[in-house]
Amino acid sequence: MEQVTIYGRSGCGFCTRAVELCEVKNIPCRYVDIVAEGISKADLGEKAGKTVTTVPQVFVGEQHIGGFDEFSHYMKQQKN
């Protein structure tokens, strides 16, 4: 699987769950705290190619997967 990048913020339970899902599946991921990095939801929207209103926002490689629910569904579809 390509690099998983999770954009989130501290105190976000769904962000934590997305990281934990990677850990359970032994998939390395990169977590980016959008507040610490000065990344706005508008910036994420540009990267995703659509309006973003929540975190986490998960990418596999350059492919935008979506939030936690979409990422969880995506992971269930993988062979790992």
Shape: globular
Distance between the termini: 9 Å
Count of domains? 1
- How confident is the prediction overall: mean pLDDT? 94
List the secondary-structure elements in sequence, H or E. EHEHHEEH
Helix count, DSSP H or I runs of 4 or more residues? 4
Strands of the biggest beta sheet: in what spatial order? 2-1-3-4
CATH class identity: Alpha Beta
Describe this structure in words.
This protein is an alpha+beta fold and 80 residues long. It has one domain: Glutaredoxin (3-Layer(aba) Sandwich), CATH 3.40.30.10. The chain has four helices and four strands, in the order E-H-E-H-H-E-E-H. It has a four-stranded mixed beta sheet, with helices on both faces. Helix 1 packs parallel to helix 4 (68-77). It is globular. The termini are close together.
Question: What would you say about this model in short?
Answer:
By secondary structure, the protein is α+β, with helices and mostly antiparallel strands. The chain has helices at residues 13-24, 34-37, 41-48, 68-77, and strands at residues 4-8, 29-33, 57-60, 63-66.
Helices and strands in order:
Layout: E1 4-8, H1 13-24, E2 29-33, H2 34-37, H3 41-48, E3 57-60, E4 63-66, H4 68-77
Parallel strand pairs: 1-2
Antiparallel strand pairs: 1-3, 3-4
